[in-house]
Amino acid sequence: MKRTSLTAVVVVGVVAGMTGLAFAAVPLYEAFCRATGYGGTTQVAEAAPGRVLDQSIEVRFDANIAPDLPVTFAPKQRSQMLRIGESNVAFYRIHNLSNEAIVAHANYNVTPQVAGSYFFKTECFCFNDRVLAPGEEADLPLIYFISPDIVSDPDTRELSTLTLSYTFFRAADQSAAIASN
Amino acid sequence: MSHHDAAHAGGAHDAHGDHRPSIYDPRRWLFSTNHKDIGTMYLVFAIIAGLIGGAMSGLIRWELKEPGITFLPHLVHVPHAILEQVRLGVMNADQLWAWKVDAAKHFYDTLVTYHGLIMIFFMVMPAMIGGFGNWFVPLMIGAPDMAFPRMNNISFWLLPVSFTLAMISFLVPGAGDHAGFGGGWTLYAPLSTNWGGGATPFSYHDGPAMDFLILSLHIAGASSILGAINFITTIFNMRAPGMTLHRMPLFVWSMLVTVWLLVLSLPVLAGALTMLLTDRNFHTNFFNPAGGGDPVMYQHLFWFFGHPEVYILILPGFGMVSQIVSTFSRKPVFGYLGMAYAMVSIGLIGFVVWAHHMYTVGMGLDLEAYFIAATMVIAVPTGIKIFSWIATMWGGSIDFKVPMLWAIGFIFLFTVGGVTGVVLANSGVDTSFHDTYYVVAHFHYVLSLGAVFAIFGGFFYWIPKMSGYRYNGFLAGLQFWIMFIGVNIVFFPQHFLGAQGMPRRHVDYNEAYQYWNNISTIGYLITAVGVLVFLVTLVEMFLVKRKAGANPWGEGANTLEWSLSSPPPFHQFNELPVIKPEAGH
Q1: Is residue B392 a contact partner of residue B318, using CB atoms and an 8 Å limit?
Q2: Which of A21, A66, A172 has the CB atom closest to B283's CB atom?
Q3: Which of residues 145-174 of A touch B (CB under 8 A)?
Q4: Which is nearest to B54 in space by CA: B158, B138, B124?
Q5: Do A23 and B228 count as a contact with CB atoms less than 8 A apart?
Q6: Cβ–Cβ of B364/A114 closer than 8 Å?
């Protein structure tokens, strides 16, 4: 191959590689957020660690709804005090105001965002999309704990209050709702 | 200089060198494979796009001259349906004005958006890379033409196509009734998406304007990538004998770094735009939280492209300023290797600082600390360049010809913009300055006053070579001083406005900001007079036809292009010049 063509082919390869990397960024970005708690991404655990500290922390609950979702959605408790490491239950209430079934998808994070890697959920309504029957009212459970490691991280050990926030969206995939209608 | 005789063989004995087709033959331009003709087309295109983009900024400044939405409502397009309602008496004059004011808000946003996109993609990049790059990279390395002359043709002709699509996008519905995309040149999701259609209380840009814009930028990107492949191949394989990498003129070095940045960053923009396109049209959810996506990821992808892009806009300017300062100080550039590798390191570090554009997304202290440190590190190679230019001038026999005025203006104003850049690099400060006029002042100092000054400097430095004519020194000098005063009056007060908290991209503002906004608009008018003087200078030059010799700048101009006639023969260097060690840079 001529030297000029070889150079051109190599540069085309670089262009293709960078295009590939742009798309590879999608799964990498998600994996990065999950692994580091970046952006306040909460963690998932099978069970609480069993180690419970004397120190308590306050968890506040926040609820948001995307503008095109005809539901009411609110936490049943404004906040909870719990001991660090202890497993706790909280409930949100959702009410489908429309006379259609809707698939709702919850996004969540915790602020301050540095605490994301210490906020563990063992069970959450947010793990799966939820089909809401027409007019359905439901209590949505959440079981969570704060990892005792939070007190040994210099960025988080001063924290006395965490805020857990959910936003319900109309899920992009509404096929389950169409099936139940 | 020692390579003078060698180049003579390339120019004077070039038998068919003068068989240049008539400039009135459209085939010469449409089918051109000549790097100099293609460079000329890029420069003409950049001037036209610059006038359009500059007119848009005029509308922006005129609206901001006083508080209240007073000027743009007169210019908005009123759809037929609204006119019909006025005719039937359903809508009275007050209601019509209210409709126009509402439309003017979106119109203002589109002006800001397209001004930025046009100046970046259709003015600065075509002028520096396509224009000066095409003209002078082959001449400076002693090559007969670019490596792939036909690909060079398609690189250029994709650009008018892309520009046409962008202009169509400006005119077709973007958000509801309102024409154009108004989400800023960064095209952030979710503003650039069409979620919610138009039926729900919230919809962003549901019209086709954004889709046209995506296609336009895809094509502009393809044009730039093809051009970049061409430059890399040319510089790596077609240097004249003896022209080693470390003897290349600094302008060629700057182009080499620039086109590598293009190759590495533009595909990421293309990827992000493709994701936007499929999110809008094919039900994917890359950036849609309702489907598990994340709009912040768009910002990461965009700025992974966007930050190298701002270096793409300035690096060729560094190269041109190095040539000009050396020529008019009659000294070789101080610290040649340091200058070359400063550009390489600016290019490399430019890829790892992108999140300093998005401190406010909430990224955690450690990450912010990293991006602050990495950003500030860029001040080191940039400082090397500034001090080396000053050291080049130090003790030199300085000749204040017009290109030198622009180059010194560049060094001064770019330094001002660089200093505010270091201020903004601090996330604590940026949290307060983010999206204020302080940022607008900063990036206009490095781009509008930096890059554009470099372009004018390069233009007046090389126009005798490109056209064969000398410009009128009085007119060109007049333009420099008018524009130098004008742009500083436009942008320096914007530091004050930003520090006082005036947000950017807003059509209206609190009366407290009126004083400096008024001054800024007066500065625009002065600048516009400067642009008029530039056009007069151009016309005068081509009418009076003062012949420029092969080298109008004297012994300081010792790169290869000055060894050819002005304008250079249609095909040059049929016998390659041989570069001896002392002749480099």
Answers
A1: no
A2: A172
A3: 155, 167, 169-173
A4: B124
A5: no
A6: yes
Query: Which chain B residues are Cβ-neighbours of A3 within 8 angstroms?
Result: 237
Residue pairs between chains A and B whose CB atoms are closer than 8 Å = 106
Give the model's pLDDT for residue B582: 60
Per-residue 3-state assignment (H helix, E strand, C coil) for B193-231: CCCCCCCCCCCCCCCCHHHHHHHHHHHHHHHHHHHHHHH
Q: Which two tokens stand for residue B416?
A: 């001002």
Q: pLDDT tens digit string along B163-184?
A: 999 999 999 998 888 899 999 9
Contacts of A60 (CB under 8 A, 6+ apart): A78, A79, A161, A162, A163, A164
Question: Could you give the 3-state DSSP secondary structure of residue B58?
Answer: helix
State the nearest Cα–Cα gap between B200 and chain A, in angstroms.
Answer: 6
Which ipTM was obtained for this model?
Answer: 0.86
Distance CA B123, CA B117 (A): 9
**For residue B567, cis peptide bond before it (omega within 30 degrees of 0):** yes
pLDDT tens-digit series, residues B125-171: 999 999 999 999 999 999 999 999 999 999 999 999 999 999 999 99
Kindly tell me the burial class for residue B1, based on how many C-beta atoms sit within 10 Å of its own C-beta (0-12, 13-18, 19 or more). middle
Output the CA–CA distances (angstroms, integers) from residue B526 to B119, B490, B529, B580, in the order listed: 19, 9, 5, 48
A91-105, B65-79, B282-296, B474-488: which is most confident: B474-488
Average pLDDT over residues B381-395: 96
Confirm if B524 and B516 have CB atoms less than 8 A apart. no
A68 and B CB contact within 8 Å: yes
pTM (two decimals):
0.91
Q: How far is B8 from chain A (nearest CA, A)?
A: 27
Q: Hey, is the C-beta of A19 within 8 angstroms of any chain B C-beta?
A: yes
A1 interface with B at CB cutoff 8 Å: no
Instruction: State phi, psi for B362 to the nearest 5 degrees.
Output: 85, 80
Instruction: Please report how many Cα atoms fall inside a 13 Å half-sphere around the Cα of residue B110, on the Cβ side.
Output: 26
Report the C-alpha gap between A72 and B345 in whole angstroms: 54
Answer yes or no: are the C-beta atoms of B109 and B47 closer than 8 Å.
Answer: no
Instruction: Locate B364 and state its tokens.
Output: 């955690």
State how far the Cα of A124 lies from the Cα of A144, in Å rounded to an integer: 8
List of E strands, B287-355 = none
Question: Poorest-confidence range of B173-177, B202-206, B321-325, B542-546?
Answer: B202-206
Catalytic residue among B65, B504, B505, B506: B504
- Identity of residue A99: N
SS3 content of chain A, % helix, strand, coil (to 5): 30, 40, 30
Distance between first and last Cα of chain A:
63
How far A144 CA lies from chain B's nearest CA (Å)?
22
Distance CA B456, CA B250 (A): 18
A128 in reach of chain B (CB within 8 A) = no
Catalytic annotation present for B164: no
> Which residue carries 């051009």 as its tokens?
B227
Q: What is the dihedral of CA B150, B155, B160, B166, to 10 degrees?
A: 150
Within chain A, where are the H helices?
A: 3-36, 175-180
Look at B289 and A7 and tell me if their CB atoms are within 8 Å. Answer: no
What pLDDT digit, counting tens, does each position of B85-95 carry? Answer: 999 999 999 99
State the Cα–Cα distance between residues A29 and B373, nearest whole angstrom.
23
